[in-house]
Amino acid sequence: MAKKTTAAEAPKNSGNKSFEERLERLETLGEKIRKTDIPLDEALKAFEEGIRLAQALEKDLEKIESRIEILMNSAGAAVDESPDLELFDAR
Predict the structure, then answer these.
(1) Is position 7 within any domain?
(2) DSSP string of 10-34, one letter each residue
(3) Among 3, 7, 19, 57, which is disulfide-ready with 45 (CB 3.0 to 4.6 Å)?
(4) Which residue range forms the structural domain that includes residue 53?
(5) Exposed, middle or buried by CB within 10 Å (0-12, 13-18, 19+), for 5?
(6) Is the pTM of this model over 0.85?
(7) 45 near 5, Cβ under 8 Å?
(8) How many CB atoms lie within 10 A of CB 1?
(9) Which residues have a Cβ under 8 Å from the Cβ of 30 and sit 6 or more positions away?
(10) 3 in a domain, yes or no?
């Protein structure tokens, strides 16, 4: 008999999914919870999974923000200086 994946195991599998896939899953869970015909225990499991996903996505966004700040504030890049886009100029 195949083992059924529970909501508690979902975060372990989420490491293999992209940010967009996890965000889509969170949106699906939100839609599921809003349905009035869903049993309470199923809604609670979906809510718990959604909370874990939201927290993980928030951590990912914080990491991305940190990386962007590092790139923007790196030594050698002046704040007032515009990037050189000569490569992209139409010829």
Answers:
(1) no
(2) HHHHHTTS-HHHHHHHHHHHHHHHH
(3) 7
(4) 18-72
(5) exposed
(6) no
(7) no
(8) 3
(9) 50
(10) no
| Contact predicate 33/46, CB 8 Å | yes
From 66, 52, 47, select the one nearest 15 (Cα to Cα): 52
Q: How many domains does the chain have?
A: 1
Report whether pLDDT(63) > 90: yes
Domain assignment present for residue 58? The answer is yes
Tell me the one-letter amino acid at 47.
Answer: F
Flag whether 38 is in a domain.
yes
Per-residue pLDDT tens over the stretch 7-57:
444 444 455 789 999 999 999 999 999 988 999 999 999 999 999 999 999
